[in-house]
# Entry
Amino acid sequence: MSETLRNIVPKAWPFEEAAKVAKRLTASGKDHALFETGYGPSGLPHIGTFGEVARTSWVRRAFTELTGLKSRLLAFSDDMDGLRKVPDNVPNKEMLEQFIGKPLTRIPDPFGTHDSFGAHNNARLRAFLDSFGFEYEFASSTEYYAAGRFDAAAKRMLECHAEVLAVILPTLGPDRRATYSPFLPVHPKTGIVMQVPMEELRPQSGTVVWQDPDTGEQFESPVTGGHCKMQWKADWAMRWFALGVDYEMSGKDLIDSVKLSGRICRILGSQPPEGFTYELFLDKDGQKISKSKGNGLSVDDWLRYAPPESLQQFMYNQPQRAKRLYFDVIPRGVDEYIANIDRMPAQDEEARKTNPAWHIHGGRLPNHAGSPLSFAMLLNLASVVNAHEPDILWGFIRRYQPTATPESEPLLARLVDHAVAYYQDFVRPDKHYREPTADERAAIADLGRTLAGLPADSPAETIQNAVFEVGKRHPFPELRAWFGALYQVLLGQQEGPRFGGFVALYGIQETVGLIDNALARS
# Structure
């Protein structure tokens, strides 16, 4: 990477990653970069899949911006893997039981919609990626092996077999170490992907000799043409070597595997790709999310309660820091996205590149404006009016901003729909109004009288200043405690948006009524 390029790299993590790829291409002389993401298609796409493709896409966009060079994103499906167990979320489980051990692309589709189980899950993966508009090329492990795309690399692996074993064996337990081989021959009679020791290696003929443990029959299988596949760590390295992958990110749980596969890649004769380790997600209790436990948040869950751009905002933020991925993080993700959208028009081109919204929208200004109201504000309004349909919120919104319509404010229109759904499912069941203390009661009553004395059309800032002044007149240790009391006593929530903005939206007289009802309830 030239000194000039280094000096113009924007201070945003996708650009910092892209600079590593640019430096790599300068050293290699390549005129384009290959980015890769990999999947095990035995299950359905999930939120981690989304995060990895989105983040890789941002690095790829930043690479193009830095260098002007072409690049590709390869979404690689390891669909030649043998089926280890029958998934819980599929029909016809009994039928699948008889195909344990066979490649996913040689197993009938239990859903009855595709030629194989692997093809079905690959189609789901592609539809998932397409729904977000990702630009990528899909690659099937089965097709690449069968077409000979990995033949030269497989032969090279055979030549380097002893060196590869020297890297892998120390990482295995005694039993596994005794039988391990990077090659998994596909049984010519049963079609099962065999995990058996190699009795003989024949690099000159490009074959391996092995024995069926059940029948004792001996076979000689070519390592080419899809007659064998690799164990996954060796397979990962072989793929990097064969395809010339320049960049691939992975989760923290794969750190050791990345190091091991990188060593194998160097043995084969090339440099492993540039990489990036992202942190894993945690559930609401701070525990690692597990697909089998179902203790996380799905993409469909998120998209029911917020727009997809907010999910990208969440994925963009601090990817190397563990984050809770649960329903209560959604509102903040939405409002961070809105704030970044609002900042973009006033930023110059270089400043925009440090704005997450620039990356979310592919380096362009979005074709829609932001929202005149925050998602948190809409949620508080929905809470106060017990909204069960969007029209209830629009009545208040039009009074606050008479020109606002779903057509003129498309993002706001989406947020209103999401706010009603979020309120009904999460806020309403957990609403809990507490009684005010004596000091809080006096302060809230004072606020009611103060608001009643303001003009009905007072702007949000004037109302906010009045709320501040009331809080200062009463013995709160800090103003945060004053606003906390307002949220908990009046709204039944632990926190909320700027209270002045909420009053301007809900209405001054309506807020005075809210205060009177709360004090009477207490």
About this structure: The domain at 3-147 is CATH 3.40.50.620 (Rossmann fold). The first helix runs from residue 3 to 7.
